[in-house]
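ok here's the first one, seq then struct tokens
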Amino acid sequence: MEPTAEIDLRGRPSGEHRDRLFEALGTADAGDDVAVVADRDLDPHLVRYQIERGRALDWTYADPDAEPRELRVTVGDPLEGARGTVDVRDLKPQRRHGVLLETFDELGADEGFVLVNDHDPKPLYHELESMHGDVVEWEYASRGEGEWRVEVVKIEASEADDEGVVTRYDVREIPKAERHPTIHHRYGMIPEGETMELVAPHEPQPLRREFRQQYGDSFTWAVVESEPGRCRVRITKDASVDDDASTTDESADADGVSAAPADDESIDVIEELDVRDLPPAQRHERIFDAYDALDAGTGFVLVNDHDPKPLYHQFDAEAGPAFRWEYRARDPGAFRVLIGRAETAADGAADEEPSTPF
């Protein structure tokens, strides 16, 4: 169906984006589509429109990561007191946190939105709390099956504490079991050359060893403040990744979780599943379907464009003791993981979280 209106925002000052977008959407009727081309993601403006105008919007990007950004916005009915929605499942994972941080930054007191994601977005909660303080209200509306819905509200006005960094985590406020997965998950998404900051009770040497094991010499680690009970560490992602980092100690994952070697269990690799060309919203469903189709003793090699660590935790919680996970390569843009169903459950507790202190 042809759009009701078309807007091209490329090359225009960022201050004009919101005004032109609001003008076009304001003249549209419920059910009308507006085609937009821009040189940046527009989700914060679209959430702002829903808050200020009280009209529901639904939008989809033509490609998860292509430039320029092309999207189709459908105008819905009046919200009548409900929260506006932002569905990030059609964004490349590396873009999602940036979009959502900017969206939250622009909220006023008691303003919010409903976040829709294809996996549990709990790392975002920790990130918002670390950067804005105790002003985040976070309530799950639904969980699982490729659609997690969370109502996110800023209960007091605030500004992000992000000077000199792209993100910050105060790990003292994150449950111990969630710390390392949260940090690795977010680090994998920050752009090359950017810096994340950690605030910890002391310098997190176990985490530094994990970074060295997984990323080699492709990061810079700097302690910028150290006093009793508080240490600030800045981790900068270098512009290139050491090829050796992708093959160091493949028997352990990013949290130090050792998987039983697949070869020792005679897991037969029956296919390679490359999900990089699939929209992010379709990836988890496709991967779980492939796992469900496995016979005992078989597996497949997953190829993804970033570390699929959140997927590991979902499998670990849902798939049972026969589940196997083994990194084969951690190359930029091409992470390879053997996912298999063993003949029998492994002895012991190989896939439990390690008890190493932070």
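and now the second one, same deal
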Amino acid sequence: MKAIYLDTKILNIITKFDVLENQLLSEEANKKPLVGYLCLRTPVELIEAMGATPIRIVPTPGFNVYDYGNIRPDGCSFCRMLPSFLKTEKYKNLSAIIGGACCDQMRRAMDTLKRDMDIPVFLYTAPRTFNQGTSFFLNEMKSSFEQLAESLDLEIDKGLAKDYIDARNKLRERINCLRESGSLPDSLLHRISASSLASGSILDLLDKIESIKSDVHSPKIMLAGSIPGTWELAEIEKTGAEVVADVTCMGDRAYKDLDRRDGDPFENLYDVYIENNLCPHRRPITNLLDYIHDLAQSRKIDGVIYLTLKYCHPWGLSAERMRKTLSGIHFMKLDDDLTSPALSNFRTRVGAFIEMLQAKKIEQEKRAKIAV
């Protein structure tokens, strides 16, 4: 069975991403501020509209898994690893950090960074429920970005914000189209989600993608749960499975909605990035469950691999509801803490799960031929 992650054309595009992004960060570190941001609740268009370069803070190769900083021990593994991520080469030239949090662990982690780092750190509160206190949380977000701009001696240009909204909408539309057609592997989608390249540059690279023919026996997987580390997806793809649906914050969920261009850009961006954010921190999680169910049906998935980080309570406590929502679809839950990957155990369990799905697909195809 062909392993999608080994496709030469895709590897070449990912390599091109790395080259262009390293060049960008090297050049722009001396020209304009580099602003680190956390989570899907951060409108990157506002960072761009103030003349800064947004850099998403995600698990990064080369971090020290035992460097917890001063993050409390009952924090989720991602929050505990933040100080170590920030010591890697990618983030060494940050001028500031901004992020929105409705999760207590993220809030505590950001408070620690604000206390311990030598650069400005801005945290705005995001709602935990839907359609509650919109004006308050909108002002929280707006105030934080205005303070960020002031700290960097910059101003947010609303006209530019609308231009960046247009550019990112085009990128979202292109990504959704490629994902629906099965032409954008999850490994490349994750790379885009963590990229600092401008939307136009990413679109230029995506134009080089050609249609990928899948192995008919290749199990179609949905990846769900906490933010993945640096190796889980590669191990899944090595089995020959295709991750065609991804509801982690690095996958399809990051490109679900389009921004409105007309009206106030702060309000429009708030609606997409915060009010309509389908994160399990939000209550009720009905909208998230509906989205996952519909995505699973439209992508015709065979199984779900559900990853949870240690102490990531929203995803951990939602696992059983997700399983029931996807009733009839094979579901495997795996725990990780980023500090001890237990690679062999992960590889064994995922391999067995994919082999079972593959065998079932082959058996179903045999029965279908007999029936005909």
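notes on #2: The chain has two domains: 31-157, 214-371. The CA atoms of residues 17 and 181 lie 22 Å apart.
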